[in-house]
Design goal:
The complex is a heterodimer of chains A (137) and B (113).
Chain A lengths: L16 H25 L6 H5 L2 H21 L4 H4 L5 H13 L7 H21 L8
Chain B lengths: L2 H28 L5 H5 L2 H21 L4 H9 L1 H12 L6 H17 L1
Helix pairs in contact in B: 1-3, 1-4, 1-5, 4-6
The chains are: A mainly alpha (137), B mainly alpha (113).
Chain lengths: 137, 113
C-alpha cells in the first residue's frame, strides 16, 4: 500500500551518526563533480556535438546526482541545521585535490587557514547539534 | 545596470533560493516515499529539486560576470538562511555552537577562495 502525501515520518530530533556519515560521503561526490566540471569547462565549444561528447560534463552531472540522492537519504536522519553545514567540507576536498589535477592550482598558507576554519566550524556545528533540547531534559 | 552589481544580486537571490531548496528537500524526505509513484506525488521533493537547479543555474550565469572570490562567500551565506528556515519551519533549535560553527565556516570559505 502506498502512503504518500499525508503520512509524515517522525524524524529524530537528535541527528544520527549515520546521517553525518552519509552527508560526508555526499561531499566526496559533490567535490568530484566540481573537478569534472572544471575539466569539462576547458572543452566547451559552441557546437552541440562537442557538448554531447563532453564526457567530463556527464560525469559531473552523474556525481552531482549521486550526491543529491545521498543528501536526501541523510536528511532523513536528523536536523537540516546540523547536516547542511557539513556540505562545506566539499570546499576542503576540492581545495586539497585540485593541485593534483590542475597545474595552475596550488596550496597557500591562506588556504590551509581556510581549511582549519571550516573544520573548526563543522566540529562546532556537530557539538551544537549533540546538545539536548530543553524539552528532553 | 552595472554588470558586477547584477551578478552579486543574482548570487544573493541564488543563495536564498538554495536555502529554500534545502528546506523543501527536507520537508520532502520527511514524508514517506516508498514507491516510485509516491515519489512523483511528492511536490516538496520536486520543488526542492527545481529550486536547487534554478539556484545553480543563476550561480553559473553570475560566474561569467564576477570573480569567484567575490561570489563564493556570498553563496556560503546560504548556511545562515538554511538554519533560519530550519528554525522557523522545522522547529529546529539553534544554539551558540551552531552559530559559531557557521561563522567559522564563512570565514574559512572567504580564506579558501
Amino acid at each position: 500500500m502506498e502512503n504518500s502525501g499525508s503520512f509524515k515520518v517522525r524524524t529524530a530530533h537528535r541527528t544520527q551518526p549515520w546521517a553525518f556519515a552519509l552527508t560526508l560521503l555526499c561531499t566526496f561526490f559533490v567535490s568530484a563533480g566540481q573537478i569534472f566540471y572544471k575539466f569539462a569547462s576547458g572543452r566547451i565549444t559552441p557546437d552541440i556535438f562537442s557538448i554531447l561528447t563532453n564526457v567530463p560534463l556527464f560525469l559531473g552531472f552523474a556525481s552531482y546526482g549521486i550526491g543529491l540522492l545521498l543528501l536526501l537519504l541523510a536528511f532523513r536522519g536528523g536536523e537540516l541545521s546540523a547536516l547542511y553545514p557539513i556540505i562545506a567540507t566539499s570546499y576542503i576536498w576540492v581545495c586539497l585535490t585540485a593541485p593534483f589535477f590542475f597545474r595552475d592550482d596550488y596550496m597557500t598558507i591562506q588556504k590551509w587557514f581556510g581549511i582549519a576554519f571550516i573544520t573548526a566550524g563543522i566540529i562546532s556545528v556537530g557539538i551544537g547539534s549533540g546538545r539536548k533540547y530543553p524539552s528532553e531534559k | 545596470m552595472n554588470l558586477h552589481l547584477f551578478a552579486i544580486s543574482l548570487v544573493c537571490i541564488s543563495s536564498f533560493l538554495g536555502a529554500f531548496a534545502q528546506l523543501e528537500l527536507k520537508l520532502g524526505v520527511n514524508r514517506s516515499t516508498k514507491s516510485i509513484l509516491a515519489f512523483f506525488k511528492n511536490y516538496d521533493l520536486m520543488a526542492g529539486v527545481v529550486l536547487y537547479t534554478v539556484a545553480a543555474g543563476m550561480f553559473i550565469f553570475a560566474l561569467k560576470q564576477e570573480k569567484l572570490t567575490v561570489l563564493y562567500p556570498l553563496v556560503a551565506t546560504s548556511y545562515i538562511w538554511t538554519s533560519l528556515l530550519a528554525k522557523k519551519y522545522l522547529d529546529e533549535r539553534m544554539n551558540l555552537f551552531k552559530w559559531t560553527g557557521i561563522s567559522l565556516i564563512l570565514i574559512g570559505v572567504c580564506l579558501i577562495v
